[in-house]
Amino acid sequence: MRTLDMRTLMRRAARGLAALAALAALAGVPLGAAAADEEFYKGKTVTFVVGTAVGGGYDTYSRLVAAHIGAHLGGRPTVVAQNMPGAAGVRAASYLYNLAPKDGTTIGMVDEAISLNQILGTQELRFDMTKFNWIGRVLANSAVLFARREAAVQKIEDAYSKELIVSSTGTASRLNWTVLKKLLGLKLTLISGYQGSNDSLLALTRGEVDALSMPWSILRITGAHLIRDHAINLLLQTGAEKAPGLDEVPRMIDLARNDDERALLQVFSSPSSIGRSVLAPPGLPAERVNELRRAFSATIEDASFLADLDRAKLDRNPLSGEELQKTIAATAGLPQSLIQRARRIADGTAE
Question: What's the topology of domain 143-270?
Fold first, then answer.
């Protein structure tokens, strides 16, 4: 067997390293990045903060992401979900922004309406949504306003001339129906005394209210029998993007009569674009943000993750962290005149 001299060994080693660097470049990963990420996360625990109580859409999606994303992070850290409900997501968002470690070991999912609350100047907010590091979106979350079959309003256009009694239990729904009343003149009577969508649905079946809204991802499953039996009419989508299968149901922004109204309705529709999104604290090293985004993108394409979604009968409508960051940043560029008008409408002091 021929013995190789030291120069030959060094030349072969150099060629091997060059080939490895070329492969890394083709994959879009700097040489040494994967090793560095593996070294950072190895043996660590990542906390996934859930901005709601156990149960419901946010909790379900958060736990699904938490169950799978660790396998796509270098070093395969343990990921643990931690519920932090309070103040409609403000508590969790404040923690992530002000107190959580800024090293990639804490990420989370908070209420989609947080950005709208910031635009509207909610006083208790102690964070800037544009400065979070947005990791990616699992689902755009458009709610659907629906009415019982016996209601006078059979389609949304009827509400210009006929009263529609709407159960409005959440901040987002209250704001949506307020802007339709104040801006467009729809004859909506808002009832806020019911505790959540289950109580509201019971009230609808008893004829105490005419309508309520629910996320389409939930309504299409829990209300499948109501839709099938034509016991309800789907009136309106709140999202900026039309939900799959609802091409015939108008969006809020479709009711605009001019560009100014469309811009205002776009503001109130903005939470749906955030939907079920993962975010990280501000101030993370760029390489850690990139690693989290790569891991998220791999997670939502992972066969086991998709199988879990399918078993839970959940939808997926992903958006990359980079695109999500741009979407959030765009809210900072809204004209002050538009923001002030939106605030007057939300306060009930405008037209």
Answer: D-Maltodextrin-Binding Protein; domain 2 (3.40.190)
pLDDT of residue 215: 86
Residue 113, token pair as written in the block: 């309406």
How far apart, in whole angstroms, are the C-alpha atoms of residue 193 and residue 252?
A: 24
Nearest to 122 by CA among 342, 327, 350: 342
| Alpha carbon distances (Å) from 222 to 59, 119, 159, 215, 347 | 17, 32, 26, 11, 33
Domains 35-140+275-335 and 143-270 share a fold: yes
What distance in Å separates the CA atoms of residue 53 and residue 351, rounded to the nearest whole number?
A: 36
Q: Where are the domains of the chain?
A: 35-140+275-335, 143-270
pLDDT band at 199 (very low <50, low <70, confident <90, very high): confident
The HSE-up count of residue 268 (CA atoms within 13 Å, CB side) is 32
Alpha helices in 28-170 (DSSP H): 33-41, 57-69, 90-98, 114-119
Q: Worst-scoring range by mean pLDDT, 25-29, 56-60, 184-188, 321-325? A: 25-29
Question: Hey, which CATH number is domain 35-140+275-335, 3.40.190.150, 3.30.1490.100, 3.40.50.1100, 3.40.50.2300?
Answer: 3.40.190.150
For residues 133-146, give the mean pLDDT.
94
Show the tokens assigned to 305.
């993750």
What distance separates the 2 farthest-apart alpha carbons in the chain?
95
Torsion region of 118: left, alpha or beta (phi above 0 gives left; psi -120 to 50 gives alpha): alpha
